[in-house]
Each structure stands twice: as C-alpha cells, then as structure tokens.
C-alpha cells in the first residue's frame, strides 16, 4: 500500500521574485471525473493537506490512490503544494515517476487520482530490518539506477523535487520504483533566483540548505538520493539528525567538518560558524556490518560531496561503475526504464524474492 506522508508541514514562505498564475481548463465531465465512480476501500494515509484512500475505479475495477484535499478554510483556494504537484506531474511522463491519472474539482474539495502502488520504500526497508535483513543487493542496484534515471529526467526538464525521502518512493511487486509527492517541487530557470530553505525532510537535507544558501538547484536532489542509497545499503539513516544543528554535526561526523579548501565559499554562508567543532572524516554508519561493495560506497560518497559544484550529477551517476553489471539491455533507453535490471550473477528470481514482504 502507499502510505501518505503523515508528517505535518509548515506553510511554505513565498519564494522571492516569483509570481505565477495558473489557469485550469476542465473538459466536459467524464466517468473518471465523477468521484462517485470511485469506491473507497480503506484510508492509507493522512497529512496536512489531505487524506489518501485506496480505491477502485468502478467502470474498469482499476485500483487507484485517491487523494482528497479539502478547501474549507483555505482563503487562497487550492493549496499551493497541490497546485504545484498537479502542474509538475502534468509535465512529467516517465515510468519511474508516479502517474497522475485525473483531477476532480468540486466546490469544497479537490481529488487527485494517482496510480496505486503497494508499498513505499520506508515501509519495505523497515520490514526487512525487522527480519534482520536488508534489501537484496541486486535490487538496491536496480532501484538506484531507476531513481538516477527518473531524477535525470526531471532535472533535464528543469524540475527539482526538493523532498526526496524513502516515504516518497513507491514500489510495486515487480521491482519498479517511482518518485512521488511533488508538492515541494519547483521549476527553475537561468538566472537562478533565491528560493526557500523550508524544504526537504531533515535527514535528507543538503548541507547548503542547512547552512542557508539562498540559491540552490539540482545538486540538492543528488545529495538526498545519495543518502537514500546509503540507507538502502545499511538499513540505517546515514544522517539521522533531530534538529538542524544536530543534522549538521551528524554530517560532519561522517564527512568531516567542511572548510574553504574542500568547499570554496562555505565560510560565507549565513549559518556557517568558524566555531563549529572540527570533526575528522569518518565512515558511513553500518551497525549491522552489511557488506557494502566498494563501487556502491564510492557512488554514495560522490553524491554526498559537500561542494554542490563538484557533487556527482544524475547523468554522471548513470555512467558510474557501480551500474556496470546491470542487465542494461532490459532498459529500452536512458530515460525510459520499463522493468528493473539485476546483477548478471544473480537470478531475477532471487532479486524479486526480496519483495515478498510487499505482498
């Protein structure tokens, strides 16, 4: 099932210098645009802006995720996060991006109809951890490659997700993984403009955002993805901070305290302090001592590079040696992976077996 992100969000401050007007044109109502044609089966999540139900579209018996957004009390109409999510997903058509099937507008509420997936990556990792296991190594490689392709697709269309975390990555029973929840996504253009720092869940927030850099772009997603891949490899969060300063210190303990020699300009960032403790470079947390392939470790550390200019991009990541052993012929093109790829020395059956807990 697809649990909706339960964590509450603050209302995001208006980003400087941006005035956007959205126009929606709705065709004559069809069967899919009548909410009475959807039978709700169960509530699968609830958040600040809506409730998500597992539902069936009666005419075809198709399973969907139905997100209900109430408009009562909203003085400005549809919440900005919902408008942003609709507009972004209408622009993105990729096998590793969740599909927005329809938008149903009523007087007091809006329904977003998404394709239904059975589980998110957070729940799946937790289930594996309870059994003292981690995700199959071949499946981790496949998931990582698919996510790199999806992010490369988004970034090539000048869209930053800004909220990548395991809860927003949905998986199916066949090894496919998809990016969801584009409520904080933002389209960018050159020249870049200052943007809000009230984005991303703490554990996956890039250091430039924590240090209040006003202008950032695609590298913040690459940092989040590096932290997610590291977590898949070890079953524990790489940087599990409980406040912004603790988050910074968790990063420093693994990567060392940054300075001008490794990150030019860091000392000029608003929240950087010369009084920060000087931590030596450490290791990625791995309490269960899982074997981490050297190429996987190299990929993670290059995506967790302090300097955003030097941080590995998704396009570079797709060419990393960590993915050399994938059966890339399964993927029809760089941008459109249809089904997962697996390590050539592991059977597909063994890799798919890791998904049994999803059922």
TrEMBL record:
One of its GO terms (cellular component) is nucleus. Residues 38-323 form the Protein kinase domain. Its EC number is 2.7.11.22. It comes from the Eukaryota. It catalyses: L-threonyl-[protein] + ATP = O-phospho-L-threonyl-[protein] + ADP + H(+); L-seryl-[protein] + ATP = O-phospho-L-seryl-[protein] + ADP + H(+). One of its GO terms (molecular function) is cyclin-dependent protein serine/threonine kinase activity. ATP binds at residue 67. Pfam families: Pkinase. InterPro entries: CDK (IPR050108), Kinase-like_dom_sf (IPR011009), Prot_kinase_dom (IPR000719), Protein_kinase_ATP_BS (IPR017441), Ser/Thr_kinase_AS (IPR008271). Keywords: ATP-binding, Kinase, Nucleotide-binding, Serine/threonine-protein kinase, Transferase. Belongs to the protein kinase superfamily. CMGC Ser/Thr protein kinase family. CDC2/CDKX subfamily. This is cyclin-dependent kinase.
């Amino acid at each position: 099932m697809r649990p909706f992100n339960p964590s509450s969000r603050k209302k995001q401050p208006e980003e400087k210098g941006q005035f956007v007007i959205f126009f929606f044109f709705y065709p004559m109502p069809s069967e899919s645009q009548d909410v009475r044609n959807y039978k709700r089966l169960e509530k699968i999540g609830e958040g600040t802006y809506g409730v998500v139900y597992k539902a069936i579209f009666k005419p075809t018996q198709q399973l969907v995720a139905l997100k209900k957004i109430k408009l009562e009390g909203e003085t400005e109409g549809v919440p900005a996060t919902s408008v942003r999510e609709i507009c972004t997903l209408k622009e993105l058509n990729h096998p590793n991006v969740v599909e927005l099937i329809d938008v149903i507008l009523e007087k007091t509420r809006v329904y977003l109809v998404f394709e239904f997936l059975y589980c998110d990556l957070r729940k799946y990792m937790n289930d594996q951890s309870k059994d003292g296991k981690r995700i199959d190594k071949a499946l981790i490689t496949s998931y990582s490659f698919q996510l790199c392709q999806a992010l490369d697709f988004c970034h090539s269309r000048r869209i930053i997700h800004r909220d990548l975390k395991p809860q927003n990555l949905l998986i199916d029973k066949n090894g496919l993984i998809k990016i969801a929840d584009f409520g904080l996504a933002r389209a960018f253009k050159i020249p870049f403009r200052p943007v809000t720092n009230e984005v991303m869940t703490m554990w996956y927030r890039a250091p430039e955002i924590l240090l209040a850099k006003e202008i950032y772009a695609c590298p913040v997603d690459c940092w989040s993805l590096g932290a997610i891949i590291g977590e898949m490899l070890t079953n524990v969060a790489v940087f599990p901070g409980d406040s912004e300063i603790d988050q910074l210190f968790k990063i420093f303990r693994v990567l060392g305290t940054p300075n001008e020699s490794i990150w030019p300009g860091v000392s000029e960032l608003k929240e950087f302090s010369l009084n920060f403790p000087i931590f030596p470079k450490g290791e990625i947390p791995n309490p269960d001592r899982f074997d981490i392939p050297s190429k996987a470790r190299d990929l993670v550390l290059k995506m967790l590079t302090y300097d955003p200019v030097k941080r590995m991009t998704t396009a570079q990541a797709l060419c990393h040696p960590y993915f050399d052993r994938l059966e890339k012929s399964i993927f029809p093109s760089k941008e459109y992976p249809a089904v997962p790829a697996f390590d050539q020395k592991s059977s597909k059956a063994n890799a798919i077996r890791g998904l049994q807990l999803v059922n």
